[in-house]
Specification:
This protein has a two-stranded antiparallel ribbon. With 325 residues, the chain is mostly helical. The protein has 2 domains: 55 residues; 245 residues, MetI-like (MetI-like fold). Helix 2 crosses helix 14 and helix 13 packs antiparallel against helix 14. Helix content is 72%, strand content 2%. The N and C termini lie far apart (67 Å).
Length: 325
């Protein structure tokens, strides 16, 4: 009798332990199973095309024949004058685009944070450009400056405002470069492209900064005012440090979108006049779909992917440092 009771107890303990082991394994791996559908989608639309792009970058397609060329496509891309010129254009575009959008977004967010009347209506109106596609925005801004019948074409063509002969945004070439091989000052079309792109991105950045401003405690602002701090010092020493993580997120968001965006260039300037607005993303489009040189286009896409990955890792590193601080 005692032996049978002991055997039954051992059997129950074995079943319970086995059930606990199963439950423990399921509990430990539950996050993986929940993320598995998303991981499969990312593998299908990101990882596999990325690997295939790297494969294409080592191939040459001539006369219907595919040939392995190793890193020759990278050499052809990096040694071309078009790559160096587009790299400078991208740099100038990013500096102007990111700076203008961040400053304008911060100023507008500060105004909206004052709880104005109809502020909800203003936020709704400001958000309208964000829902428009880059191509649509580019076409709208192009209609403003089309020569002869554009809404603002007569203004830009006025020699009293833009001496000595006025300018045409879409056709005036850039001025003589200050330094050799550096296309600066940029063409009017590139400056206009910066304003159009900033207008498109401004709503999201404004709302992002506004959300951060609303987390700043009112008591801290009021205490600073009582201590004699003016508006600029309050912004510089209190508001700005408190919303710095959000500004970092906005900075990298704008940088990534500026590096990869092609729709605005495609519909607004087409890379012109000449190649004055040909940034890296549009050069990639031109090589791949204009010249059908898929090997060089894939090599350039791999280079841009490395830039994107570097920016993402840098953003994560800075965000982690901010959390630890």
């Amino acid at each position: 009798m005692a032996q049978s009771a002991e055997a039954a107890s051992i059997s129950r303990f074995s079943r319970t332990s086995h059930r606990h082991i199963k439950q423990g394994f399921f509990s430990r791996t539950l996050p993986f199973w929940l993320l598995l559908p998303t991981l499969l989608v990312l593998i299908a639309i990101q990882f596999i095309p990325g690997v295939f792009s790297f494969f294409l970058s080592t191939q040459s397609f001539e006369r219907g024949q595919q040939t392995f060329v190793g890193l020759r496509n990278f050499e052809r891309v990096f040694t071309s004058s078009a790559f160096g010129e587009s790299l400078w254009h991208t740099l100038f575009f990013l500096i102007g685009y990111v700076t203008l959008t961040l400053i304008a977004g911060f100023v507008i967010a500060q105004i909206l944070n004052r709880k104005l009347r109809l502020s909800a209506f203003y936020i709704t109106v400001i958000f309208i450009p964000w829902v428009l596609s880059d191509v649509v925005v580019g076409l709208i801004f192009r209609l403003f400056v089309v020569p002869d019948y554009g809404l603002f074409s007569a203004l830009f063509a006025n020699p009293n405002i833009f001496p000595p002969k006025g300018i045409s945004i879409l056709t005036t070439p850039p001025s003589t470069p200050i330094l050799p091989d550096v296309p600066f000052p940029p063409a009017p079309a590139l400056i206009y492209l910066i304003f159009a792109s900033a207008w498109k991105a401004l709503p999201f950045i404004t709302l992002l900064i506004l959300a951060a401003l609303q987390t700043v405690p009112r008591e801290v602002i009021e205490s600073a005012a009582i201590d004699g701090a003016d508006g600029w010092r309050t912004v510089r020493f209190i508001t700005f440090p408190l919303i710095l993580p959000t500004l970092v997120v906005a900075l990298f968001n704008l940088t990534l979108s500026g590096v990869n965006g092609v729709g605005m260039v495609f519909s607004l300037t087409g890379g012109g006049p000449g190649t004055a607005t040909e940034v890296l993303s549009y050069l990639l489009y031109t090589i791949g779909f204009g010249r059908l040189d898929f090997g060089r286009a894939a090599a350039l896409s791999v280079f841009m992917a490395i830039i994107n990955l570097t920016l993402i890792l840098l953003a994560l590193r800075i965000s982690r440092s901010e959390r630890e601080a």
